[in-house]
Amino acid sequence: MTIDPRGADAPVPVPTELSTARLRLRPWRADDAEQLQPVLEANQAHLGPWIPARVADPATVPRLATRLAGFADDFATARAWRYAIVSRSDARVLGEVSLFPRSAEARVPLASADRAEIGYWLRADATRQGLATEAVRAVLDVAAAVATFTRAEIRCDARNAASSAIPRRLGFMLEATQAAAGVRATDESVALEVWVLELERPGEGLTSCA
Ligand SMILES: CC(C)(COP(=O)(O)OP(=O)(O)OC[C@H]1O[C@@H](n2cnc3c(N)ncnc32)[C@H](O)[C@@H]1OP(=O)(O)O)[C@@H](O)C(=O)NCCC(=O)NCCS
After folding, report:
1. CA pair distance 52, 4, nearest whole angstrom
2. Nearest CA, atom 22, ligand 1
3. In the chain, where the domains are located
4. Average pLDDT per run of 10 along the chain, which is 210 residues long?
5. How far does the centroid of ligand 1 lie from the alpha carbon of residue 8, in Å?
6. Which CATH architecture has domain 18-150?
């Protein structure tokens, strides 16, 4: 699969369904709100320090439905591809893995992007089973298929050891640690790690045997 964002079919049709051994990844839907609401309520302390309030803060089911409809719209218009992580065995919503088109400086519209930033969260009772690593591996394949993306980045607070273990496990290099705003308005400046993986496309690096 190769996805060309400069093609006539833009916005980019990335897959709306990805399967891994244990997971199904698909865009959020407004009707996930009922299932997600108690998850966010129960995971405030787990997610709050690391995930922006606009994503992790609990809300009423109708407000959450509006938030998720916004995520679905972002997905369809290629602003941000947020996949709900769903268990294949029991259909429970376990978290999210996302791809954000970006430049060296910021998240940008796809047409100006040369890389993908990857984000993720899992509900606390789904951690320590390798599920986030499995989900990130799947979206890396999607990023590699976008013709204009040369690299993937994971940006995480240096204090977030569980998060930085994921790029380390997947072969990313720690390119820089830089001062940045934390996810909460009240956060002091934090040390943000920038993990990078050069994307390889099928066939790249092969030499002819003829
Ligand atoms: C970051 C976060 C997703 C990491 O979750 P996680 O469960 O540690 O990550 P994984 O799902 O990849 O699981 C890794 C763990 O499973 C274990 N594991 C078991 N089977 C595994 C497999 N097949 N592959 C990889 N790891 C496996 C690993 O050894 C590791 O365990 P350890 O923590 O005891 O070393 C989770 O802590 C979280 O949601 N945090 C809050 C939100 C957040 O910080 N998001 C990132 C913002 S930058």
Report:
1. 30
2. 130
3. 18-150
4. 56 86 98 98 97 97 98 96 98 98 96 97 98 98 95 97 98 97 84 96 57
5. 39
6. 3-Layer(aba) Sandwich (3.40)
